[in-house]
Amino acid sequence: MEENIYIHVGKNTLKQIDEKMPPEEELQDLAEFFKVFGDATRLKILSVLLCSEMCVYDIAAVLGMSQSAISHQLRVLKQLDLVKYRREGKTIFYALADDHIVTILSQGLDHIEE
Predict the structure, then answer these.
(1) 108-111 contacts: CB < 8 A, separation 24 or more?
(2) DSSP codes of every residue in 65-90
């Protein structure tokens, strides 16, 4: 970054930007991560899983949606490690992957409710 092309940006600010800017690949991964939260159906599924782990059948019943629609969205959520699953006999139960997801949802809701 050439500092002489900036009007109000000093050398220290440019240095901070250089140090704090994540690599391009990480920024792309982060963009993909946040895209997941741009779908209301996925947010509904995550909200349900905030309360309890559930199987596809029960998630579909709670949300009044088809099992295939829920399965499709769960596949996306699994690919980005937002949900985990466990098998019990023939039934697969889904749950939030970790507390980070709870925090992201909570902070997002806090932000829009301000």
Answers:
(1) 108/37
(2) --HHHHHHHHHHHHHTTSEEEEEETT
Tokens found for residue 81: 């490690």
Domains of the chain plus CATH, in order, are 1-38 (no CATH), 39-114 (1.10.10.10)
Q: Residue 2 pLDDT more than 80? A: no
Structure tokens at 108: 């997002």
Closest alpha carbon to 57 in 42, 74, 40: 74
Which one-letter amino acid corresponds to residue 92? I
Rg over alpha carbons for the chain, rounded to the nearest Å, is 20
**8 Å CB contact between 49 and 83:** yes
Can you say how many angstroms the Cα of residue 114 is from the centroid of all Cα atoms in its chain?
A: 21
CB proximity list for 68: less than 8 A, separation 6 or greater: none
pLDDT tens-place string over residues 39-95: 999 999 999 999 999 999 999 999 999 999 999 999 999 999 999 999 999 999 999
